[in-house]
Amino acid sequence: MSEFPTKTEVVVIGAGIAGTMTAYQLAKRGVPVVLCEKGRVAGEQSSRNWGWVRKQGRDPREIPAIIESLRIWEELEKEIEADVGWQKGGTLYIAKDDDDLAYFEHWLGFARDYQLDSRMLSPDEVDELTGSEGRKWKGGLYTPSDGRAEPAKAAPAVAKAVERLGGTVLTGCAVRTVESAAGKVTGVVTEKGTIACQAVVCAAGAWSSLFSGNLGHAFPQLKVKASVLRTKPAPLITETSVSSPGASIRRRQDGGYTMARSGNSYFEIVPDAFRYFRSFLPALNTSMKPRLRVGGAFFEELVRPKRWNGDQVTPFEQTRVLDPTPHQGTLREVLAAARTNFPQLGQLEIAETWAGMIEVTPDAIPVWSGVDNLEGYYIATGFSGHGFGMGAATGLLMSELVMDGRARVDLSPFRLSRFTDGSKLELNAR
Q1: Cα angle, residue 73 at apex, residues 426 and 151 outer, rounded to 5°
Q2: pTM score, two decimals?
Q3: Strand, coil or helix: what is 117?
Q4: Taking the chain, what is the end-to-end CA distance rounded to the nearest angstrom?
Q5: Which of the residues 100, 205, 301, 357 has an alpha carbon 20 to 30 A from that of 15?
Q6: How big, in percent rounded to 5, are the helix, strand and coil portions of the chain?
Q7: Where does the chain hold its CATH 3.50.50.60 domain(s)?
Q8: What is the CATH number that goes with domain 10-90+145-419?
């Protein structure tokens, strides 16, 4: 751990991809910044995701930001002089039926508005792109300029770049609360001591609402569990990240594939599910609908404190890293689907399985926002399973919001107050 600082300009909470990228963009501007992480860099979802960096399929409100994000990802390795596994290989969604084709065509209308290179593929083109022989799908949606990176490498590499630029990265150092005076941020209290500052960015992922709630700024955010596997080395059939019926695959640097399945997350019912039930009700009628479970998490969170002082041990110190157990039955189904859809991969073998907790908002788009009545406090969270690829833009936009009061992208759809100002939440999930 770096030497403990007692003063800085901005404190960023959470060393996932959103937090590290935010600290990096601030450090690039010469802004004194301290990045605080309760556990280890990228210990939670930022190292557990699929590694896709895509424009394709995005909520239309996110498209301007993801365009910025891809621009940064493409130059990141050169800029930070580190390997993050970047590869421009494209994204392919395979259509199994006419409903899929209709949805892809509908989304393509948004892509054309932004001059994206997305296009529809014929069944033969899908076969050619995936190295298939005679397997006839209905077609597909393809964006060749999309890419991928290695989640386990990206945030740690960016954190090291923050330090080279003069920023401080503190691991094993939970921020307990934010101090303020006259409605303005004056510092943070960590388990190691107090850091005076003028601004705080909460990029704490699944912990963001709990942390903000202690300050009086709770918002509707829940978390779902998603399971993932990686295979042992297998034949290279495509450089493209592919979503197919029952299995999504991404080529890895180690020669294997990361595999998972869309729309197959698990939500364990917790007290916040009742608290935010009305906000999340529309999502239950979409493909976002998770499988519901009741277990020990309900009682753990029931007794978890919602308020605490800076001199008290917090939930963030009691749980350094969220490390849920993967659902092996789901992963067996994913592997079987991959073998069926892509027999050219041969006899795939599992090398490792894991799970991560994804923070979700009712409308499945992020919060990039300041908060009312606390000047200098900002939130970057709620990426709903799409945050890794968006991480580079998150850093850029939050740095601009903090330092300039505005960002190059219109952030009004992502304001925190949309949950409380009577706005009708628009859910574009399928």
Answers
A1: 80
A2: 0.95
A3: coil
A4: 44
A5: 301
A6: 35, 25, 40
A7: 10-90+145-419
A8: 3.50.50.60
